[in-house]
Amino acid sequence: MHHWADDSIFYHIYPLGFCGAPKENDFTSEAVPRLEKIYGWLDHIQSLGVNAIYLGPVFESDAHGYDTADYCQVDRRLGDNRTLAALSGELHTRGMRLILDGVFNHVGRHFWAFRDVQENLAKSPYCSWLHRIDFSKKSPYGDPFDYEPWSGYYNLVKLNLHNQDVVDHLLGAVAQWVEDFQIDGLRLDVADNLLPDFIRQLYTFSKNLRSDFWLMGEIYHGDYNLWTKPGMLDSATNYDLYKALVSTHNDENYFEIAHTLNRQFGQYGIYKHLALYNFVDNHDVSRIASALKNEKHFPLVYLLMYTNPGVPSIYYGSEWGIQGKKLPHSDDPMRPSLDLLEIKAGPKALGLEDLITRLSVMRNSIPALRYGNYQQLDVSSSQLAYMRQWQRQSVVAALNSSQEPVRRQVPVPLPEGTCMVDWLQPEVGAVVTGGKLDLEIGPNEGRVFYTRGE
Fold first, then answer.
1. Of 130, 282, 321, 353, which one's alpha carbon is 20 to 30 angstroms from that of 453?
2. How far apart are CA 157 and CA 321, in angstroms?
3. Among residues 160, 128, 129, 155, which one has the least CA distance to residue 66?
4. What region does 13 belong to: left with phi over 0, alpha with psi -120 to 50, or beta?
């Protein structure tokens, strides 16, 4: 029995940037329904083969969305609760899923409980909502008390998730989101900072609301298995694969990603039972077009993401190869406001939009790419071939990142005479001869051969 997420292709939008919202929330202005901008993009998004949208922070916050002020109200810079409910309704009418960001580790300094502590100090009933509050010290902001921030950022106030009142407040917000916005799941911000007991409570609570609710955690470092145990998260961000996708091409070393894929999904793969969340860029890292040294490798990176185990995700705008480099003190370059008509009228990066559309159709058409196992077949510094198998269907992906065409004799554990067809070039076929496929691969090219599986 497969979860709906296994059959999904996500489109990731960072709403505050995408919608061109003001950088700071003044908490007095009337709500402006900037989220409605997404309506004009839905035809384009669906044309890419996408059937699920992940919206970054949408609830009232101080600035960037990860500094929540109110979990129950949509950020006035994006609209109000009716704005989000209407958008969600349109998505579901189109047969699309919606997941939101769950930012539960910390809040902003305008969070109502924190403001109560500022006003009433030790008499506030919400002192225990803050993590390690200390009235013998002052905060860097001059508060007559100190508190634990997230990762040293004092504009992010760490919540005390040992306090059941805090947990109940957060779970109540999730219940409201499911009721009012019909969300299908959550991406948990800095999930590896959350208490395991909190994640277990959230899992049980959300699955009781909806049995198919999907919980995906942002895990930057460490073993994803620690957080995806039964009763915890369903999936995690695959940063290991992301890092390998970038560095393996910049270093011209396919041995690196071969090692990563074998470790994750091979015969003894530690994550072979998981459908991890795969991406080539997001709101926290440089756009893939800025991260890769050679733009001719764009198609290879996306082909790898689409043909390996996991759930693929496209970050808004990267389907056109737009630039956006992470700066030491600003993420703004990765989070721009984009004009769809202007982009559509402009130059396209190596036909990337068309390729992504074809890759989506391919993944949706070939069950082995969604559910199949992983087996490495052939690897060198600039070439990689692997196989995915599901029931009676087999897929062989072969890539060449060098500037020259190559011919490879790729060993395959398939019956002699098995015929395969290249999805990307249907006029090209290959036949298993002597236990191998004789493949010609052009420079910076990928091929995806498959059997129909009848």
1. 353
2. 36
3. 155
4. beta
Q: What's the CA gap between 147 and 122, in Å, rounded?
A: 13
Task: State the Cα–Cα distance between residues 336 and 334, nearest whole angstrom.
Answer: 6
- Distance (Å, whole) CA 311 – CA 243: 16
pTM: predicted TM-score of the whole model, two decimal places: 0.97
What is the number of other CB atoms lying within 10 angstroms of the CB of residue 240? 21
Cα 191 from Cα 173, distance rounded (Å): 17
Contact 258, 28 (CB under 8 A): no
Helix pair angle (298-307, 239-250), 10° resolution: 150
Instruction: Write the single-letter amino acid at 180.
Output: D
Instruction: Please tell me the number of Cα atoms within 13 Å of 276 on its side-chain side.
Output: 27
Separation of alpha carbons 443 and 73, rounded Å: 51
Classify 37 as helix, strand or coil. helix
pLDDT tens, residue by residue, 98-150: 999 999 999 999 999 999 999 999 999 999 999 999 999 999 999 999 999 99
User: 381 — phi, psi (to 5°)?
Assistant: -60, -30
With beta carbons less than 8 A apart as the criterion, state whether 141 and 109 touch: yes
Beta carbons of 395 and 368 less than 8 angstroms apart: yes
Please identify which residue in the block is written with the tokens 């690897």: 379
